[in-house]
Amino acid sequence: MRLVTFQTQDNPNSRPGLLRGEEIVDLTLADSSLPGTLRGILAQGNDAMRQVEQCADSDQRVALAEATLLAPIPDPQKVICIGLNYRDHAEETGAPIPKEPVVFSKFPTAVTGPGAPIELPQVSDSVDYEAELVIVIGLEGRDISKENAADYVAGYMVGHDVSARDWQTGKDARQWLLGKSFDSFAPTGPYLATSDEIADPHALAIEMRLNGTTMQKSTTEQMIFRTDELIAYVSQVFTLVPGDIIFTGTPPGVGMARKPPVFLKPGDQCEVEIEGLGVLSNPCTARG
User: Fold this and answer.
1) Which of 9, 132, 159, 268 makes the best surface tag, with the fewest CB within 10 Å?
2) Which of 70, 93, 115 is at the close of a domain?
3) Which domain holds residue 156?
């Protein structure tokens, strides 16, 4: 299934939907017993997901063209990120190949959806792009084994880990959290593809285009630490809950590594595409 969060002009309330071609089944109308958010649906487990499947033929639909898609999970409890998880990306930044996952986070207020502007702050002139595969957690768990990790995955989506490099690496304190957490610096979408739709998350083409020019092009098979390893690693420390999202790292071609560097500017158009997960498109604007 392809799950979305959306709103319409006649009903600005955000609500969960099931994408069916060029239409969206409004799950709040198709089955009023379902929670009013995707995170809430995931929290109710397999029974709720079966209810969603049963809504596929409902006539409670809106045209995709008449809807505004939001981040599929607009309110995650945790936004977990993995750095330097593609070998060639680590090499282009001059960093050693990590022996264990490099973990950081973004505040949930950084999350935004498809079509929403990436707001470039006045306090940074080195905002960079990073195309990433995002894991969406579907079950609560701690100390999850690699062997069982896939059972805890609700699905996957496209993510864009926008990064203020002058804050992340240029400050004396190397402010990774702050450099990654400006509002709008975590676009995701356009939809959440449930895990049964993605046969192998480690065999997906991934590409980032800036104003139509391809800047990053790779496959997720280049990951150093695979999705099961990441889930097992972080769940040693904290409990994962439904709706938590994990950005899994970016391939080479980021702006900071180019000569000369390429950073985002107002008027730019970013497109991140991952095989089977669609295209996430966001314009860049100056933050007021």
Assistant:
1) 9
2) 70
3) 79-286
**CATH number of the domain that 123 lies in?**
3.90.850.10
Any residues with CB less than 8 A from the CB of 124 and at least 6 apart, and which? 164, 165, 166, 167, 179, 182
The helix or strand, by DSSP H or E, that contains position 102, with its residue range, turns out to be strand 102-106
CATH of the domain at 37: 2.30.30.230
Residue ending a domain, among 70, 97, 128, is 70
The answer to whether the pTM exceeds 0.85 is: yes
- Asked if 40 and 85 sit in the same domain, the reply is no
In the numeric block, which tokens belong to residue 216? 């990053």
Please report, in tens digits, the pLDDT of each residue of the chain (288 residues total): 999 999 999 999 999 999 999 999 999 999 999 999 999 999 999 999 999 999 999 999 999 999 999 999 999 999 999 999 998 888 887 888 899 999 999 999 999 999 999 999 999 999 999 999 999 999 999 999 999 999 999 999 999 999 999 999 888 888 989 999 999 999 999 999 999 999 999 999 999 999 999 999 999 999 999 999 999 999 999 999 999 999 999 999 999 999 999 999 999 999 999 999 999 999 999 997
- Sign for the CA dihedral angle at 95, 87, 83, 262 comes to positive
The Cα–Cα gap between 264 and 284 comes to 7
Distance of CA 68 to the CA centre of its chain: 17
